[in-house]
Design a protein that fits this description.
Blueprint (H helix, E strand, L loop, with lengths): L2 E4 L8 H18 L16 H24 L2 H16 L11 H21 L8 E4 L19
Antiparallel strand pairs: 1-2
Helix pairs in contact: 1-2, 1-3, 1-4, 2-3, 3-4
Amino acid sequence: MNTMTTAPSPTRGTTRSKVGLALAGLLSLSNVFSAFGDTAPEGEVGPPAVVLWAGTVLGIVGLVAVVIAWRTGNRGALRVAAGAIIITALTAVPAFFVDVPAWLKAAAAVGVLLTIAAVVLMFSTQRGHATVTDRGRVPSPPSPAHPGSAQGR
């Protein structure tokens, strides 16, 4: 028996993965300075400071991981970058359940959708045809006899 199966393997530089990495880099970069800006207007409550600092740390981690993944194609760095932007997107989810201005809810929704798009694109592979070759036929095993049949007696 000689069987060869080739499935499409992820390639380091597909256009889709580069676009996803670019989106992840922009999302991470936008989070780097989140703890240093004035977030809530006078008299309004903004996100807790711990969320802002977590966003800054995740932004730095994500940005470093994006650069490593872009330059080397390292799958581990790709996963770290995806994890950083996913966790950051999860910190925006409470905005949908509290009383905040509509533009903040819209911004949170855009951020979550961009995160989903970035992750899908980062892990997309180049599609190609699979090569399957079967040069020897292996006989199938005999079917089991049924208890009520003549073969089973």
